[in-house]
């Protein structure tokens, strides 16, 4: 068996970045992590988590999440409510479309303050 444990993603402001991600995805509040609590953990399902690690110049990351249709619709609503640009094409994250160009039920991409490309699909 191989199972994903966690992903590490750089962030300038780990607390704010973790809160942003947890809020958009509708997850529990992030928790401090590491010896000095200098990182933040955003818990997903099945014990998997995203670990936001401090970096003055974050390296680009692209992380994709698969969700059910109901959660997808809720995420779209949260992005709209917060005024976060999104789109169904990774090269056009401002078109506000959610139809899946790859044939699925829905797909969107959005960037965070660190320049990371987050993808949500159902």
From TrEMBL:
Annotated protein name in UniProt: VOC domain-containing protein
Residue stretches making up the VOC domain: 3-122
Organism of derivation: Nannocystis punicea
InterPro entries: Glyas_Bleomycin-R_OHBP_Dase, Glyas_Fos-R_dOase_dom, VOC_core
Pfam families per the UniProt record, alphabetical: Glyoxalase
């Amino acid at each position: 068996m191989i199972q994903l444990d966690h992903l590490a993603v750089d962030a300038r402001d780990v607390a704010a970045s973790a809160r942003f991600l947890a809020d958009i995805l509708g997850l529990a509040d992030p928790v401090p992590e590491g010896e000095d609590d200098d990182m933040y953990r955003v818990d997903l399902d099945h014990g998997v988590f995203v670990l936001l690690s401090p970096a003055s110049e974050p390296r680009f990351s692209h992380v994709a999440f698969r969700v059910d249709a109901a959660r997808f619709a809720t995420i779209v609503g949260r992005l709209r409510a917060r005024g976060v640009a999104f789109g169904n094409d990774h090269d056009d994250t401002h078109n506000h479309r959610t139809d899946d160009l790859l044939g699925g039920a829905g797909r969107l991409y959005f960037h965070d303050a660190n320049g990371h490309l987050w993808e949500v699909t159902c």
